[in-house]
Amino acid sequence: MRTTTLLLLSWLVAATAWASFTGSGAFTYSAGGGAEPGDTAPPEGAIAIAQADVPKTINSAGDYYLSENLSAASGSAITITANGVKIWGNNKSIAYAQSGAGNAIYYNVGNTSGALVNGVTFNQGAYSGNTYVYAIRGSGYGYTIHDNDFNVVAHAGYSTRAYGIRIESSGVGNELYNNNFDLSGADRFYAFYCTGTWDIHHNTVLVHNHTLPSDGRYPYVFNIVGYNYTIHDNTITVQADSRAVNVYAAWSPTADGHEIYNETINFAGDHGRIFLMDSGTDNWNIHDNDITVTSQNGSGNSVAVFRARSSNTNDAGSTGHIIHSNNVDASGSDADTSIVSLGDDPPNATADILIYNNIFKSSGDVIKLYSYDGMVSNVDIYSNILEHTGGNTGGYVVTSNDPAYSDIVFSHNEISTNRSDGDKVYTTYNNSSNITLCQSDVTASDVAGGGSVTVTESTCQNNWLGTPIQTL
């Protein structure tokens, strides 16, 4: 048993001990906006908003609360034109976009600050025209959004997009926590699409009953196009009746520096990406997440847990990501599920990626080098448990389909398969100068496909950190 297992067992023991110390399901944290989780009671002196006030415009800072359920056929139910406006939902609802485009709450201030929304149930209506609809829309910084319920339905339409939260934020100090998102429909939705910097935690997301339109507008749960997000302690469920869902995704050169950890993810959807680090995204740190994938994909479809690529020739690639200490079990999925998928179209690189101390199990490919002539370089994969569980009808532990690789190193991993032929690596190209497996439970006879890689029991040299890889 290699040092890999000992390190991973130490990590698991430490995590178990911490859970026992804190108590099952217990957590404490400091919430922003002066309100703790569940604190949705309006403060004394708050101003009431009734249905008779709709459409309501608020032009003075202060506390406002819903005295009854509100409804707006179109337009904005509440428009805010001042900083420092706090909306206390008082556990009431706002029905919006009933027959025309509109918003539930619209912060129509050029640079909003000090905004608070809590205790509201947002119910999107039946409008399905060519204009986007939003539960909360605004711009600025310093938003605190907590303890709300968002019911978002992506109705089929030529350019309809349904947004839970859309904030054009240029600053820091934004927080989203303790909310519930129910997402469904037949077009593109976004639970969250915001710029700026956010702390997103302790939210619950359910995606169900979703079909992809013919023009392929994939929906996003979190479209994280800002910078330096912290995303943690959320629970995400994508049911089997949902298709082509991206959970955490960005196609933006500004989407850098995110940290995503302690997430609980159950993904059963047909086709989709859980972490999509696309064109121009850099330096994501994804760790300590618990992920289960049970997808049964339709013909030509696939699921990837970690997908890093550059699909836009105008962007600078996808680089500098760190993926570590995650537990991913895709053994209950079909053969079209891969855990790590790297690379895509030229000319920009997917490069400088560290993958270590993870437990990965998949009935499909565990690590898929998916280049199509797009350079994948300087990738270190070490001290992981990598297990292929799909038998001969599934994939392999490592699959490569292109020669456009440079300095891909597997070191000190525990690699296993239940294929009857025992093959662990599949490559159709001569990659012996580009892909190296050292001290990773692989021999030359474990390589299939007619191509080649370098297999050695010697100590590997780390590609881009400049030190030998031995143990963590």
Provide an overview of this structure.
By secondary structure, this protein is mostly beta strands. The protein has 1 helix and 45 strands. The strands form 3 sheets. It has a 28-stranded parallel sheet that branches. Mean pLDDT is 86; it is low at 1-35.
Task: Please specify the SSE layout and strand pairing.
Layout: H1 3-22, E1 47-49, E2 56-58, E3 62-66, E4 70-71, E5 75-80, E6 85-96, E7 102-107, E8 116-124, E9 133-139, E10 144-146, E11 149-154, E12 161-168, E13 174-177, E14 180-185, E15 188-194, E16 198-201, E17 204-210, E18 220-223, E19 230-232, E20 235-238, E21 243-250, E22 259-261, E23 264-267, E24 270-277, E25 285-287, E26 290-293, E27 303-308, E28 318-319, E29 322-324, E30 327-330, E31 337-342, E32 350-356, E33 359-362, E34 367-369, E35 376-382, E36 385-388, E37 398-400, E38 405-411, E39 414-417, E40 425-427, E41 435-438, E42 447-448, E43 454-456, E44 460-461, E45 468-469
Parallel strand pairs: 1-3, 2-5, 3-6, 4-6, 5-7, 6-8, 7-9, 8-10, 8-11, 9-12, 10-13, 11-14, 12-15, 13-16, 14-17, 15-18, 16-19, 17-20, 18-21, 19-22, 20-23, 21-24, 22-25, 23-26, 24-27, 25-29, 26-30, 27-31, 28-32, 29-32, 30-33, 31-34, 32-35, 33-36, 34-37, 35-38, 36-39, 37-40, 38-41, 40-42, ...
Antiparallel strand pairs: 44-45
Key terms:
single chain, 472 residues, mainly beta, disordered N terminus
Mean pLDDT: 86
Q: What multimeric state do the chains show?
A: single chain
Radius of gyration: 24 Å
Give the helix tally. Answer: 1
Tell me what portion of residues adopts beta-strand conformation: over 45%
